[in-house]
Amino acid sequence: MGLISSLPSRPLKAPELSSLNRADAFELVVSVESEEPARSLLFATETWVKGALFDEDEGWTVVETVELGDELQRVDGLQACEEAIVAARDEGESN
Predict the structure, then answer these.
(1) What's the whole-number average pLDDT of the chain?
(2) Does the model's pTM come out above 0.85?
(3) Which of 9, 18, 39, 86 is most solvent-facing, going by the fewest CB within 10 Å?
(4) 43: which strand partners?
(5) Nearest to 75 by CA among 34, 44, 31, 29
(6) In a 3-state reduction of DSSP, which class is residue 29?
(7) Of all helices (H) and strands (E), which one includes residue 61?
(8) Cα dist. 30→33, 36, 44, 71, 74 in Å?
(9) For residue 77, what are the β-bridge partners?
(10) How confident is the model over 32-77, as pLDDT tens digits?
(11) pLDDT at 60
(12) CB contact burial 58-84 (16+ within 10 A = b; e otherwise)
């Protein structure tokens, strides 16, 4: 099951976000925004970070994937994915 296909076709509520954090598939799942429901998420495993954004017309979309390794730490991947989400959101608002 892919990341996007495992998400409901709507923004996530706090209990759903907590459930994702308890899942074995991810080490960390956080919302970029502080308000609920979550419309942009950062997913992290040992080897990658992904940023996903929800759009009413398109549903969930992965906007950035960063592979982690010796040269790139998780915090750098989280920051890059968050920046990609903000850029994608700003681009969507200007259309």
Answers:
(1) 91
(2) yes
(3) 9
(4) 29, 50
(5) 44
(6) strand
(7) strand 59-67
(8) 9, 12, 9, 23, 13
(9) none
(10) 998 999 999 999 999 999 999 999 999 999 999 999 998 899 999 9
(11) 96
(12) eebebbbbbebeeeeebeebbebbbeb
Taken in order 68, 78, 45, 6, the sign of the CA dihedral is negative
- 48 vs 40: CA distance, rounded Å: 17
71's tokens: 């040269």
Structure tokens at 13: 């509520």
Cα–Cα distance, 78 to 42 (Å, whole number): 7
């990609």: which residue's tokens?
84
Query: Which residue type is seen at 18?
Result: S
Question: Which of 35, 36, 91, 37 shows the shortest CA–CA distance to 63?
Answer: 91
